[in-house]
Amino acid sequence: MSFIRFEIVATVIELGSFTATAEKLNMTQSAVSHAVASLESEWGVSLLIRDRKKGITLTDVGQKILPHIREVLKRMEVINQEIALVTNLETGIIRVGTFASASSCLLPKLLAKFQKKHPNIEFKFFEGTYEEITKWLKSGIIDIGFVVKDDSTQDFDVVPLIKDEMVVAYHPDHRFQLKETIDMHELIDESFIMPTGMYQSHVEALFKEANIEPTILFEVHDCTTIANMVQEGLGVTIGPELFLKTQQNIKVSKLTIKNSREVALACQSIANASPAVKEFVTTAQHVFQQ
């Protein structure tokens, strides 16, 4: 059985288009269609539903088979990389899941270190929420992902990288501007922008520990929107230092009560990962744990 047909099916689902798949794999569209049709004919099942309005989706059996197709492709990638190591011809691709602050604050330093030593390894990045990254890990869409260590990451091999502390963020002209550390009780009368997304539980835990209720003026899901509102002086917020310290026209201060999220790399199985992924993990440990 030709593994190229597996790659074609996986790419069609990823891109949602026969035309885009043909362009990416340097094939004709008819060749892509023929490859999918021949695989369906050989197995005697339909894998894809082609709908002009909804686009291309998986049939029920296609949904069951796709994870296995991805696993076969992953195993082939490992074989190719192992052969490449023996012949001293380094090759491979790493599919990385990442969230916004990890993309801007962690990835550049890690990639700079990694690519100096392994310039021929390619990367493909998938940016999303914590929940999307764990879903991509389980389904095999990505090889490794930046995550925040919690109950949802217990099924993976997890390598802790950094502690990302919760801090207070405010407009540069705010009365907090000269304070390096802020007591939680100083936030009681402040117009507070409550995050409802990825780090809400950390913020709520801080107020609970201080035994106070914030004066919530806005509840906002998107991190960038929260930062923009703080920039406009609409209120103060609490969030991860990794993200907030990169935002323009915002100042941050430490809190007297400590709370942090642990940013880590997660993989289905490091022992069974490709040589490139294993080296990526090792490099990350050297960069962030020293």
TrEMBL record:
Q: Is Cell cycle one of the keywords?
A: no
Q: Which UniProt keywords apply?
A: DNA-binding, Transcription, Transcription regulation
Q: Which GO terms describe its molecular function?
A: DNA binding; DNA-binding transcription factor activity
Instruction: Name the source's superkingdom.
Output: Bacteria
> Which PROSITE patterns does its entry note?
HTH_LYSR (PS50931)
- Which cellular component terms (GO) are annotated to the entry? cytosol
Q: Which InterPro entries match?
A: HTH-type_LysR_regulators, LysR_HTH_N, LysR_subst-bd, WH-like_DNA-bd_sf, WH_DNA-bd_sf
Residues forming the HTH lysR-type domain are: 1-59
Q: Which family does it belong to?
A: Belongs to the LysR transcriptional regulatory family.
Question: What protein does this entry describe?
Answer: LysR family transcriptional regulator
The record lists the organism as Salipaludibacillus agaradhaerens (Bacillus agaradhaerens)
